[in-house]
Structure formats: C-alpha cells, structure tokens
Amino acid sequence: MVISLSYAVGIDLGGTKIEGVLADDKGKVYNRLRVLTEDKKGSKQIIDKIIKLVKDLSKGYKILGVGIGIPGNIDRRTNKVHNAPNNPSLDGVKLIEILKRRLKTPVFVENDANCLALSEAMFGAAKKYRNIVAVVIGTGLGGGIIIDGKLHQGVTPIAGEIGHMKIIMGGRKCSCGQAGCLEAYVSGTAIDKRYRELSKTKGHVTVTELSRRARKGDAAAKKILDETYEIIALGLSNIINVLDPEVFVIGGGVSNNDGIFREIPKRIAKYVLGYSDAKILKAKLGDSSGVLGAASLVFSNLSKK
Amino acid sequence: MVISLSYAVGIDLGGTKIEGVLADDKGKVYNRLRVLTEDKKGSKQIIDKIIKLVKDLSKGYKILGVGIGIPGNIDRRTNKVHNAPNNPSLDGVKLIEILKRRLKTPVFVENDANCLALSEAMFGAAKKYRNIVAVVIGTGLGGGIIIDGKLHQGVTPIAGEIGHMKIIMGGRKCSCGQAGCLEAYVSGTAIDKRYRELSKTKGHVTVTELSRRARKGDAAAKKILDETYEIIALGLSNIINVLDPEVFVIGGGVSNNDGIFREIPKRIAKYVLGYSDAKILKAKLGDSSGVLGAASLVFSNLSKK
Fold first, then answer.
1. pTM of the model
2. pLDDT by residue (tens digit) across A227-254?
3. Which of A155, B1, B221, B294 sits between 20 and 30 A of A243, alpha carbons compared?
4. What are the pLDDT digits (tens) for B82-92?
5. With left for phi above 0 and alpha for psi between -120 and 50, is residue B83 left, alpha or beta?
C-alpha cells in the first residue's frame, strides 16, 4: 500500500473557466471543481472564486499549498501578472501576494505551459526523463522546459516561450505584435488562418478536420498540413540545436492529430546539426495536465527546500 | 596568500595550431606551448603532439587531468570525434580513449565554444553569473550554455549549436549544408560574403574593416553592418525566448567590433516576449579562453564528483 504524504490544491486559471483539484504527490486526484472565469466582471471576483475553490477542495485535508497555472507570466521585477491576453482583468495584479495573504498558505503561480511540462515530467509521458521540453500547441503555442529534473524558469518570466522564437525573420504577423514567430505559423489559430487564406474558404477548421479533408483529397489541406509538419520540425530542431533535450512532450489541441507524431520525427534530421536522439511523445494527462501541473508546482517547490 | 591546490593541462586543438597551457584552478597560467596542427599529416601525429605537449607542460607538476577543446563534438554513441570540418583527420577518431590510455590520466574533450563558455564563467566576464550563454562569432558561429553553474551538454553532443538555429526558413545556404542558419548570416565568413555580394567588390573584409568603411560613408558596409546587428539581436532574442539567461558573453573575432555591444542591446526588445534583463558582455579572456576553458573542463568535471 502506498501512503500519500502530501496534498496540494492545483488551479488551472483559463480564459473561460477556473478548474481546481485536490491532488496528492503521486498525481492522484481526490476532488475536482470548476467555475466560470468571467474575466469581464473583474479580477476581484476571480480571486474570490479561487479562494472559495481552494477552501471547498481542501475541506478535511491539510494541504502543503496552492499552485496556479495562468496563461501568462509573473513579472519577477514587480510580482505582477503580465502577458495574459486571455485574462486581461488580471494584468498587473499581484496575484501571489494577495492569495498568500488571504489563504495563509504557500502559493505558487506559473505559466500554464510550464505547468504542463511539470505535470508530464512528474506524472505523465516524460516520467522517465530529466531533460524535457513540453510544447503546447493550442490557440497559441507555449512551451515549458525541464532541465536536470527542474523547471527552468529563466531570469525574467519568459523562459520556455518557444512560440515566439522567430523562424522566418520578417515573416507572418504574430498575436504578440511581432513577426515571423513559430506561433504565427503553427498554432491552431495560425493553421486555420493559413488554410482559409490558401483555400479561400470561410469556416474555421481544426487540425483534425484539416487532416480529414487532406485524406479526402483537399489539395489546400494537404499543403497546409505538410508545411505545418515541416515548420514544427524546424522549430523543434532549433530547440535541439540549442538545448538538445531527451524528449519533447507535445500537448494541446493540435496534438490530437496523430500525423504530428508520425511526420515530425522523420523531418527533424534535415534541420539538426549531427543527429538527434530526442523522442517526441504525446502528452498523456490530457485535460488534467493543467490542474495537476499546478499542484506539482507546490510539490516541486516545497520539496526543493 | 592563496595556495592553489589543483593543476590541469588545457589544450586548444585548432585547425592551424595546437596550443596548451598548464593552469591552476584559479585560472593562473604557468606554462604555455604551441605547435602546428598539420592535419594533413594525419591524426596519429596530432595525438603524438598532444601527448608531448602534455608531458612538457606538466613537467614537475602533478596534474588532475587534461582538458581538450575541439572545433567539433564527441558523438556520445560512439565516443568518436565528429562535426570537425577544420580537423578532418580526427573525424571518427576515439580521441578520449586513446589519450586516456597513453597518458594514464583523466581526459575530457569538449566543443571549443563550450570551453569558452566554461572559462568565461569560471575566470572571465561571466564570473558573477550562473546562467550564461556564450556566443563565439568567428569563422563560424558557436555557442556554449551554462545553466545553474554547470555546462549544459545535452543528449547528443550538439547542445549550444546556436549557429545552426534557423532564423529564415529556406534562407541562405550554410556551411553545414542546411539553409537559413544564423551562422549563414552573421559569422565572420558570412558577413564578408554578404558584403562582397552587395558591394560587388572582391577583397575579403573583416568586421573591423567593414566598420571603418561604414564610418567613411560606404553605403553597402553600413547596410550589411545594420542587418548584421539586427540578425544577431534576433538570434539572441530567440535564445532569450527559450532560455532567458542572465548574460550573454560574446567572443570570437567579430566581437572585436564594439558596435555589437552598443547596437544589440537596443535591438533585442523588438524580438523578445515581454522584456529582457540579459546583459551582453564581451568575452574577457581573449586568446586564452580556449586553453583556459579546456583546463576548466578538468576542474569542473572532477569537482562534481
């Protein structure tokens, strides 16, 4: 019998919903709750909702702390939330400080892709590895880096922002306001946009739908998919040429298209110097990666001390 | 009085010459010797020369081991030298194994840019920092990464090969055989080539000469320098978006042009997500960075155990 010693609350704070779990340090989930974010109603009610979630989830348990994943970063100079376009009301809010004071428990906040990297490293597809790059291809393209078993955080909060690596200088406009970013080509949003431009159709398509159309002979879908695989391969190769990790874990909606796992490994050799041994694995924790990653923040931060 | 406890021999194995020093773990150099590489005469005579250098340098001293910097890598699957275009005779040679057997002392071999990173971290410009990216812009463009005070080596030997990060997919042909690499735009060789193409002149120019011409009003020189600064800024920003280091240390011939240290910091903000706190410093150890970095290999590897 395994006796779990530690519990934490993990919160995934998204643009649409706030989801929370009570989990133990083996990744087992005991309680799960979900509420709407309603960012338009302001940050105060978001904070109140988080506090209520934490209290409801942890009733009857002694927790080590609370971890929160946000689609943004904490500016380390000011400890304020920034780069969180989906939760504009939180921009500039000292989230950690406020929650610590009101909850009287340790609180850790990290970028959501960093949380996915942590959860996949601790409980998911990359459990066997110590040098991991997680790539989350959804609406945007995020990343999280684990080096030597630890989340690599960098000096400012932007380490792991691989979606904003420029791969075509002066290329397509990105949602960050710059040009030529990886995200401007191969996020879910960008793939859809590139397909609509090429096919001159109007309805939005997911990558799964694009695959279906390609199999049915849609030339534009085939071309866009092929270019997408090529660009992802180039992006991952850039990371290999810099960091040379043991494994990539790919998550997010776009990773539901199995073509990625078939095509990318074949195409990487073309772009790396020498050879690559990096495995390319699909994220395993699915919808739980955010909340479990947030809970892992607590375990990984407190076990360090 | 500081008493030095440890000595090592550091060898910088270049395309033209093999240079060696006897140094202590404070970076003090006691002996220095230099011989020609003469790669065309084959690898056996190179190995014999290295052995003679080690013996001559360490006479009267007890050394911890020998460190060697090579303009290439050691393939970790086979322990053979590879990616060493300037020393073709060494390609496929089990350098570490042969030297260990003949010298009966620990031998460490690393890519020369990794050695520069180590020496600047231990004794040079980046002594105060623990998260460092060294960028060596000379004939080619190499890099070395120190994370949390340790050389980041990666799974295969290519970590730190930032020169082969693609910044313009499908762009200029690179010496590695691929296209669009950072090195294909801003190595000394590439800058010279881009200038000759634009100015339709024939003589080779260094970056220092290019700066001189730009100051004198040469429009082509101005344009090439301006683009060079812009591309280096973009390349470093890509690394910031991934690794977010505390400091870049720039070495190699191209770093003798001070414009780099004036222009790059200004241009980085345009390409990073959020903000960057990364300092951009000039490598300090100059010609000694290779040999001292090679010696540091011994100290850093043996002090780990």
1. 0.92
2. 999 999 999 999 999 999 999 999 998 9
3. B294
4. 877 778 899 99
5. left
Q: Which residues contact A304 (CB under 8 A, 6 or more apart)?
A: A150
* B227 alpha-carbon distance from chain centroid: 23
Local confidence band at A62 (pLDDT 50, 70, 90 cut-offs):
very high
Of all residues in chain B, the one with the smallest CA distance to A234 is: B166
pLDDT over threshold 70, residue A3: no
Asked if A241 reaches chain B (Cβ–Cβ under 8 Å), the answer is yes
Q: Which residues numbered 78-107 in B keep a CB inside 8 Å of some CB on A?
A: 82-83
Whether residues A245 and B155 touch (CB distance < 8 A) is answered with yes
| ipTM for the predicted complex | 0.91
The burial class, CB within 10 Å (0-12 / 13-18 / 19+), for A112 is buried
Residue among B158, B234, B240 whose CB faces A244 most closely: B158
Neighbours of A171 (CB within 10 A): 17
**pLDDT, average across residues A42-67:** 97
pLDDT number for residue A305? 46
- Asked if A165 lies within 8 A of B278 by C-beta distance, the reply is no
pLDDT exceeds 60 at position B157: yes
In 3D space, the residue among B303, B185, B181, B173 whose CA is nearest the CA of residue B254 turns out to be B185
* A80 three-class SS: strand
Q: Residue A294's closest CA among A105, A68, A118?
A: A68
Q: Would residue B300 be called left, alpha or beta, if left means φ above 0 and alpha means ψ between -120 and 50 degrees?
A: alpha
Rounded to a whole number of angstroms, the distance from the CA of A6 to the nearest CA of chain B is: 28
Q: With an 8 Å Cβ cutoff, is B278 touching chain A?
A: yes
Chain A partners within 8 Å of B243 (Cβ): 145, 152, 154, 159, 242-243
Distance from CA of B72 to the nearest CA of A (A): 10
Residue A2 reports pLDDT greater than 70: no
- Restricting to B residues 50-79, those with a Cβ less than 8 Å away from any Cβ of A are 73, 75
Q: Is the pLDDT of residue A304 over 60?
A: no
Considering only the beta carbons, identify the residue of A82, A242, A275 that sits closest to B156: A275
Query: Residue A226 CB: number of other CB atoms within 10 A?
Result: 14
User: What kind and span of H or E run contains B142?
Assistant: strand B141-147
Could you give the domains of chain A?
7-112+287-304 (3.30.420.40), 125-283 (3.30.420.40)
